[in-house]
Amino acid sequence: MIEVAEGVLVATSRAMSTTSTVLCGAGEALLIDPAWRPDELDALADELEARGLRVVGGFATHAHHDHLLWHPRFGAPPRWASTTTAVLARDERATLVAQLGGDFPPALVDLMGRVEGTDAAIPGSSVPHGFAPELVVHDGHAPGHTAVWLPEQRVLIAGDMLSDIELPLPFYPDDLPSYLAALDLLEPYVAQAAVVIPGHGTPGSDPGARLTADRRYLAAVMAGHVPDDPRLANPGMREEYEHLRRMVVPTQSNSAAVSRG
């Protein structure tokens, strides 16, 4: 794990560069999106034990299978998510479990997605000393997606947004307006942040540049242009661009019809 701010530790998985964030203070830890492969979850438990940290809570930024994971060695503290995320984790459990793959250990499958809903704040008993996390709930990338803002540390834990390796990933079929609104909602936090932690990618001191890059990319696709974005060269991103391009075609057709009328 690397320390990106005082008491904020980040581990990065070999699978999709998925990040696990640990907030630690006074011997306690809050785990945000612990991920991803079983041996990496076990190694994270080893690291917490070696540091003498007791897990007092967990938080899932959204209801995708790689962000709802847990390990028996983390213990059984309350695990939180937005209300919408908690509902999706329950109602879509069969689909989420299938996405883990048939070789995922049954004990970890059973623990996946066992979250309780909160939109106001993570209860204080689940937060280590020295942190006052604020939840920024929106519907960009996934319904009920949540960023976690740490005002004292000036760290924005962005979930699956503001990545240096992934393009913006609105969900199908009609999430683009919600995604744009989510970027607007995140903007004041980005303006204050010294560090941004994406759900996939590298923590960075360039949150403003990442927000600008995401807006520029989306604007280009909506205008019918091929974006000049280096992330297009990363695995899977050309397919995601084509997916988004198909998503915005009805919007472009509607705009053309309005201007003809």
Short description:
With 261 residues, this protein is an alpha/beta fold. Helices cover 36% and strands 20% of the residues. It has a 7-stranded mixed beta sheet, covered by helices on one side.
Tell me about this structure.
- The chain is α/β, with parallel strands linked by helices and 261 residues long.
- It has one domain (2-256): Ribonuclease Z/Hydroxyacylglutathione hydrolase-like (Metallo-beta-lactamase, Chain A).
- It is built from seven helices and eleven strands.
- The strands form two sheets. Strands 1-2-3-4-5-6-7 form a seven-stranded mixed beta sheet, with helices on one face. The chain has a four-stranded mixed beta sheet with strand order 8-9-10-11, with helices on one face.
- The longest helix is centred in the last third of the chain and has 24 residues, at 237-260.
Residue-averaged pLDDT, rounded? 94
Strand order of the largest sheet: 1-2-3-4-5-6-7
- Reported by name, the CATH topology is Metallo-beta-lactamase, Chain A
State the major sheet. 7 strands, mixed
Number of strands: 11
